[in-house]
What we know:
This protein has 18 helices and 14 strands.
Amino acid sequence: xxxxxxxxxxxxxxxxxxxxxxxxxxxxxxxxxxxxxxxxxxxxxxxxxxxxxxxxxxxxxxxxxxxxxxxxxxxxxxxxxxxxxxxxxxxxxxxxxxxxxxxxxxxxxxxxxxxxxxxxxxxxxxxxxxxxxxxxxxxxxxxxxxxxxxxxxxxxxxxxxxxxxxxxxxxxxxxxxxxxxxxxxxxxxxxxxxxxxxxxxxxxxxxxxxxxxxxxxxxxxxxxxxxxxxxxxxxxxxxxxxxxxxxxxxxxxxxxxxxxxxxxxxxxxxxxxxxxxxxxxxxxxxxxxxxxxxxxxxxxxxxxxxxxxxxxxxxxxxxxxxxxxxxxxxxxxxxxxxxxxxxxxxxxxxxxxxxxxxxxxxxxxxxxxxxxxxxxxxxxxxxxxxxxxxxxxxxxxxxxxxxxxxxxxxxxxxxxxxxxxxxxxxxxxxxxxx
Length: 434
Ligand code: UDX
């Protein structure tokens, strides 16, 4: 049985390590963050991801899964998965590859002859080629492959163990064989396998995320047109989605995409296309990004229509801080961005989220966070529904009407039952619905 190492233990790495251990492999997870490692070794996940903590605890208890800060512990491993982050650079659109470069530099001296380093992080095309040359200088007996990861937060375990495809960028048959051995049980279940060269494998990930971002911004552009013409984007999305060539998924109009992937990936892709002399090819992504950012501004416009231009002293209740439900991730969260902008405009903003209050507070300590929905909405001039957690759909609009100052709700995710709220006497507004 192969032994595996996983470098980086964030959403991607922690999930990958636990999932690979559940397939029966011995896995050592490595991270530079001592506190994170201690938690993981106790079977505790330092972020919220449904199903992951149970899996992690079972795997740590099985003895197959260990975490460490010591890179020397990977010396017996046959495959090393690089799962570190590639955030947007502070001074531009490009991806910051500091952590990827550092992990290759840390793994290379300890990797045994014949072992395979497999990048899973999302990187600009050409990175794997550059890293392979870097690797050859330090340890020529180790090969590099790229195996992009498509997991969604909130479904990380399921997406890792039951992916809709496996893509491997390899430069030898041997590398492909090793990866086939790692994923043998998934292949037996019929998961499609795609062998590619290194640049194609890197591109598959950013192309997929660009397509998804485009789909969301497309429907949000239609929402703008619906607003201008009196149409209803939710009906429009349903109707076009029945065409199997279009498909109904990722056509949920609202305040748009955020998180640690889609926004930074399309920006890094644009930056890379410019370096490649192919800027024009991805010019459309600039518009995708603009449409996405405009959706946030449109919510603020709707707020002003109802409670006035001057927001000073107005109480605004924001339901949701995470970038999407079933996650506590607030990176580039559209909901939090709107809350911050309203607060900067002088409003008294109260934010609720079932899981993301602590991470949100760590970034925006000046906002007022509420542990309960009741506390959040008490005395509100308007409620904004900005992350579509199930508990918000279960709110009884009649029951809470007496707790607010003005019964006005803006559904930034088109996920609430409009008729229910209107029947209960609320003024109901949503993006893309007249
Ligand atoms: C995404 C990709 O889906 C995944 O394959 C990749 O590996 C990482 O990036 P994730 O960031 O977890 O995953 O979130 P995703 O479910 O794609 O949602 C991204 C954002 O788009 C969220 O803010 C979500 O609220 C928004 N969204 C999604 C919409 O606004 N409308 C939709 O119809 C779908």
